[in-house]
């Protein structure tokens, strides 16, 4: 059964969500703060609501995809009484704390709540490669999983509404770490006029791809412990070599700022007696308390 759905927000992502719902045959109502955005949706049969209240009361399933938590709050609070009996799916990027607060607020209005983390860019919505993390009401997820599959593969990560955001932000942290490393690498190679495409395609991508294979072992070491040096790359060796990354950057006229926190972490891990372990030993040091 294709349930009708409301999408609040027609930015780049909201537009992609509405398009995917329409393509999957869902009667789709949209609202956007600035009227008339994404006119291409009109020929796909979208219904445009002129008020948030009209949009929300058009469907039992209400998907919100706005800029940030503040915009969600200011948009939904004036129509809070219309939410009773509906399911609110908030795909706006936010923190676990914000998600839990919105979940409590939605429960007070009598609505089921799912928080979501979109692991895709707009062009991937409706395609096979992206996925969306959901947390919150298991009842709502079970009821609407089939409808939400129109957007991207739905993956439920738990009843605590904050867990989708936590997993989402953890994945984005890893992504930005990778981008930061790549940006630094390209700054370094550009000092010798090495063609960026050649370096990226022939060296950077194969190297990162090979290194990705070490992540499951790192997770296993974190979870189950490991013998010192069992991965063959102990931290003391890594900390000693890391100085070369900093020195070479400085020699080549590249700001080493992105690397300095990593060196500080490695040095601390060694100073605290983890020199014979692998980099997983640095993970607990990042946690306070
Ligand atoms: P856009 O900047 O393209 O669109 C922002 C949307 O939020 C617009 O609909 C805008 O309305 C609306 N908005 C902004 N402020 C307010 C407000 N105060 N009250 C009501 N509406 C407001 O962003 P995206 O669509 O790309 O992103 C939307 C969400 O999706 C974000 O949380 C983002 O982090 C997340 N996301 C985006 C991805 C991407 O690659 N684009 C990937 C994964 C997640 P108006 O048209 O009136 O300005």
TrEMBL record:
<dbReference type="GO" id="GO:0016491">
    <property type="term" value="F:oxidoreductase activity"/>
</dbReference>
<dbReference type="InterPro" id="IPR006115">
    <property type="entry name" value="6PGDH_NADP-bd"/>
</dbReference>
<comment type="similarity">
    <text>Belongs to the HIBADH-related family.</text>
</comment>
<dbReference type="InterPro" id="IPR013328">
    <property type="entry name" value="6PGD_dom2"/>
</dbReference>
<protein>
    <submittedName>
        <fullName>3-hydroxyisobutyrate dehydrogenase-like beta-hydroxyacid dehydrogenase</fullName>
    </submittedName>
</protein>
<keyword id="KW-0732">Signal</keyword>
<dbReference type="Pfam" id="PF03446">
    <property type="entry name" value="NAD_binding_2"/>
</dbReference>
<keyword id="KW-0560">Oxidoreductase</keyword>
<dbReference type="InterPro" id="IPR015815">
    <property type="entry name" value="HIBADH-related"/>
</dbReference>
<dbReference type="InterPro" id="IPR048666">
    <property type="entry name" value="RedAm-like_C"/>
</dbReference>
<dbReference type="InterPro" id="IPR036291">
    <property type="entry name" value="NAD(P)-bd_dom_sf"/>
</dbReference>
<feature type="signal peptide">
    <location>
        <begin position="1"/>
        <end position="18"/>
    </location>
</feature>
<dbReference type="GO" id="GO:0050661">
    <property type="term" value="F:NADP binding"/>
</dbReference>
<dbReference type="Pfam" id="PF21761">
    <property type="entry name" value="RedAm-like_C"/>
</dbReference>
<dbReference type="InterPro" id="IPR051265">
    <property type="entry name" value="HIBADH-related_NP60_sf"/>
</dbReference>
<feature type="domain" description="NADPH-dependent reductive aminase-like C-terminal">
    <location>
        <begin position="160"/>
        <end position="288"/>
    </location>
</feature>
<feature type="domain" description="6-phosphogluconate dehydrogenase NADP-binding">
    <location>
        <begin position="5"/>
        <end position="153"/>
    </location>
</feature>
